[in-house]
Amino acid sequence: MATPYDGLYIDREYLSALALIPPRDYAFVSDESLAQIIRALQDMVDSMLFKRYAVPFVAPVPPTIKYNLSALVFDHLRGIGEIPSTTVDRIDKAANHAREYLRMAADSVTGLAELPLRQVEGGPGKSGISRGGLKAITHRTPWDYQRSRRRR
């Protein structure tokens, strides 16, 4: 039977086990809503790490990714519900650490040891970017542009 958490790195059970926020404090969030929040944040994490790492991660998902994703989920849940002030500092610290870790992983030159690196066609030294392309092209120079602006 399919669950809302299929294809996601974490689920309500993992969040409950981690317990940065006690489960009773986010019990009002339905499974479908929680799955949507996790999916959105998971997509953000994957897009940050796409250039260097093999995303989406397959089972077993690296524990650091699961922990950092859950810290971001808890930070999001903190904005939705009434969370006791005693846990807010822990959540802020964990979420800031998660953002810093993801930034460091995305900007890493050699990659982080525990994350599977992406295999780039053409071997080492080739660009890891395979998405996107030119949005527009022009043969005008900056001087042509400035001349046309002065004529107006």
Largest sheet: none
Give the H and E element order.
HHHHH
Shape: elongated
Helix content: 40-55%
How many runs of DSSP E, i.e. beta strands?
A: 0
Task: Write a compact overview of the structure shown.
The chain is mostly helical and 152 residues long. The chain has helices at residues 12-18, 31-49, 63-80, 85-107, 142-151. It is elongated, with a radius of gyration of 21 Å.
Can you offer a commentary on this structure?
- The longest helix has 23 residues, at 85-107.
- The termini are far apart.
- 51% of the residues lie in helices and 0% in strands.
- It has 5 helices and no strands.
- The chain has helices spanning 12-18, 31-49, 63-80, 85-107, 142-151.
- α2 packs across α3 and α3 (63-80) crosses α4 (85-107).
- The mean pLDDT is 81.
- The chain is elongated.
- By secondary structure, the protein is mostly helical.
